[in-house]
Amino acid sequence: MALNSSFVFDALYCLEENWEEEPREGYFVEVEEEGSCYNHGINQSNSFPTLLDQDLSWEGDELSSLLSKEEQNLLYDSLQSNGNLAGARREAVEWMLKVNAHYSFSALTAVLAVNYLDRFLLTFPFQSEKPWMSQLAAIACLSLAAKVEETQVPLLLDLQVEESRYVFEPKTIQRMEILVLSTLQWKMNPVTPLSFLDYIARRLGLKDHLCWEFLRRCDRTLISVISDSRFMCYLPSVMATATMLHVVDCVEPNLRMNAVS
């Protein structure tokens, strides 16, 4: 039996309320202690991981596998015909990116959160009479992405920072997380532009500081456009390629021109 989206979200509704931003004891939920480089959401490590030589030994079908698994963002067409949905999605994504930066989460966490949100909104269309719905979905998607990628994750109440319009109880967010997981059929590791960036960087043999600085610039470029729905029509492989070319042009404008000539 198909779920009635109105009924589902009515059950999740939580009234707006005031809350304090001061950190409390137990501010973070430990997910994994060993090897953690986060302390209260701030990346304290200034060192760059070293890529091992065996990391560069990829199977010949690695790229074919990524290409076969990447998917078009089907929400794009809906956004073109529904201005309210496009606005709600943009607002939700921009809020997630602010929280992602607030806690110094990785770029992959942000990309995964947006991916989850887009796939969820495709199944549960935005309802303009329930403006709280998109924010609740955004909180749940960001929380799930952080649990997938980060070693330390804020408590659900503490995740609601950066001018959050509504504040939801943890149990409400947890119910939404279950709804998101079931809607996405627990497929939480999709192919993203970062999948291709990592692959290409390894194939080019970029190591140490050079590799990580290049990828960091690519990360920043992707994050800067991820809220713009105009880029949703491109496959992850196309976004990754365009991002890398843009970064190369910024670092050495004449490099690509010389290669073409």
TrEMBL record:
Annotated Cyclin-like domain residues: 94-182
UniProt keyword annotations, A-Z: Cell cycle, Cell division, Cyclin
CDD domains the UniProt entry points to: CYCLIN_AtCycD-like_rpt1, CYCLIN_AtCycD-like_rpt2
A Pfam family: Cyclin_C
Superkingdom assignment: Eukaryota
Stretches assigned to coiled coil: none
A single GO BP: cell division
InterPro entries: Cyclin, Cyclin-like_dom, Cyclin-like_sf, Cyclin_C-dom, Cyclin_N, Cyclins_cyclin-box
Assigned protein family: Belongs to the cyclin family.
Name the UniProt record assigns to this protein: Cyclin-like domain-containing protein
Species whose genome carries this gene: Gossypium raimondii
